[in-house]
Design goal:
This protein is α+β, with helices and mostly antiparallel strands. It is built from 6 helices and 4 strands. The protein has a 4-stranded mixed sheet. It is elongated.
């Protein structure tokens, strides 16, 4: 604020018209705002804490995928990984509580979606580990299983598996 007062005093000393003085002050204010915005934007962009991940899948999921994908292909299926639950099922239209139900599925994902050649979900697969024994994870899995069952989408859970078991299970969906 003091800077503006000094500028106004100097402008008055120079016998510059008030219109011209207003334009000069406006230009100075806009330049100051732009400099401030650029400073904060540059600082913000430089501070982004993101980096590329090496693989979409954990080591265990990658091993399972390497086994599942060729078996699924033999059956005419395609395998998608880490598919968002809200991209597999949706809340029925016209519900007043739509947002509440959508919020429950929007941030969850399924490990593997086995799809038809037309990309219609045929069966979903969750690769369960010890984390699925935790209370919150059990509740999450129960909710997801109920939601999928209500929507008519089958889901398989595997802790242990064999190529023969996967082949047999997928052939049930032909």
């Amino acid at each position: 604020m003091e800077v503006y007062m000094v500028l106004i005093a100097r402008i008055a000393e120079q016998n510059i018209s008030w219109e011209r003085a207003a334009v000069i002050l406006l230009v100075i204010a806009v330049l100051a705002a732009l400099c401030g915005a650029l400073y904060f934007l540059r600082k913000r962009l430089r501070g982004f804490p993101y980096e590329k991940i090496d693989c979409l899948l954990t080591e265990r999921e990658a091993k399972f995928y390497a086994l599942l994908d060729p078996i699924a292909e033999e059956c005419g299926f395609r395998v998608m990984v880490k598919v968002r639950l809200a991209d597999l099922i949706r809340v029925k239209q016209g519900r007043k509580d739509f947002q509440s139900w959508f919020n429950r599925i929007k941030a969850k994902h399924i490990d593997f979606a086995v799809c038809s050649a037309k990309l219609e979900p045929v069966v979903l697969i969750e690769l369960d580990d010890r984390s699925h024994d935790q209370k919150d994870r059990i509740r999450r899995d129960q909710f997801v299983d109920r939601a999928l069952a209500k929507a008519g989408v089958p889901i398989l859970h595997y802790r242990e598996y064999s190529p023969e078991q996967l082949q047999k299970d997928l052939q049930n969906f032909l």
